[in-house]
Amino acid sequence: MHAAATVHTDGRVVVARRAFADTVAALDAPEVRLAVEGSRLAIRTGSGRFALPCLDAATQPELAQEPPLAGTVSGASLGVGAAVAGAASRDGALPIFTGVRVRSEGDRLAFVATDRYRMAAASIPWQSAGSGGPAGLVPGALFAEVCRQASRADEVRVYAGGDRFGLAWQGCAVVASSLAGPFPDRQLDALLDVRPECVVELGADELAAAVQRALPYAGPHGRVTLRASDGVLQVSGRDPQNGESEEAVKASVRGDHLSAHYQARFVLDALRPFAGGPVTVSVQEAMRATAFTAPESSLTYLVVPMRSGAS
């Protein structure tokens, strides 16, 4: 990353990434002064000084070079990538589920992530550079943050080659190594073939607020029940210790009047990308995943119901 600065002396210094990022993020000064003072990098503001130990640059790995240019996308469209990455697992014991699968599909760049209990998938338009599209598994947490940052840019360059994937825009470039291991593409693609028995259309904010209010009654596993009926979606929670809740949210309901149980936090995560607008909840039969979508979004967020005997 490059940032505009007034430079008095050229040089290079290496410090711990997390310590530097946390220090700078906490400052409320309009500008800072960086200076090497002995074995420390001093970060100075008008009223403070923060000194980080310098690391031996000779022992640090060389910065990864950008792989070949694969194409370009608009920065605004990358915001959906962060939403997809939110469905990736945080459990390092299964590393392939901690990543976002990125692959080109003609004139679209597709993203998918899952932690086995939920899945998110989306695609955005892209312009290929003719050198072959990306096909890799990018670490989810990194991908989410890079997409959030890149979404502010007008145009973002996509780099891909070998086991590396990168995004670059004015003043910044990020290159990551792909995670190793086979990703279950076919199985996940089959899950996106949603065949609902019941379709509910309502405001995402209204449903999220109702689920949030049901949380104190959702029991130790945070379980809420969504039950469709004529013109409403009932949101309920039940806990032997804390009591019970039930709330009706106005909705358009088509098909069978089904009900299903979910982990409340998964439902809230699924609704967050659709905040401020409508959401369509497509409930499938038995234990097939419920899909959350919206008319103006390519994002499909799937949440697996809980079994009725769970508490």
Question: How would you describe what is shown here?
Answer:
There is one protein chain. The protein has 311 residues and is of the alpha+beta class. The protein is built from six helices and 21 strands. The strands form four sheets. The chain has a nine-stranded antiparallel beta sheet. It has a five-stranded antiparallel beta sheet with strand order 8-4-10-11-12, covered by helices on one side. The protein has a four-stranded antiparallel beta sheet with strand order 16-15-14-18. Strand 11 (164-169) and strand 12 form a beta hairpin. The N and C termini lie far apart (48 Å). The model has no long low-confidence stretch (mean pLDDT 93).
Low-confidence parts:
none
Tell me the span between the first and last alpha carbons.
48 Å
CATH architecture of the largest domain: Roll
Indicate the radius of gyration in whole angstroms: 23 Å
What is shown here, in short?
This protein is an alpha+beta fold and 311 residues long.
Chain-wise SSE layout:
Elements: H1 17-26, E1 33-37, E2 40-44, E3 49-53, E4 69-74, H2 79-85, E5 99-105, E6 108-114, E7 118-125, E8 127-128, E9 135-139, H3 140-150, E10 155-161, E11 164-169, E12 172-177, H4 185-191, E13 198-203, H5 204-214, E14 223-229, E15 232-239, E16 243-250, E17 252-255, E18 259-263, H6 264-271, E19 278-283, E20 290-293, E21 300-303
Antiparallel strand pairs: 1-2, 2-3, 4-8, 4-10, 5-6, 5-9, 6-7, 7-21, 10-11, 11-12, 13-17, 13-19, 14-15, 14-18, 15-16, 19-20, 20-21
Helix pairs in contact: 2-3, 5-6
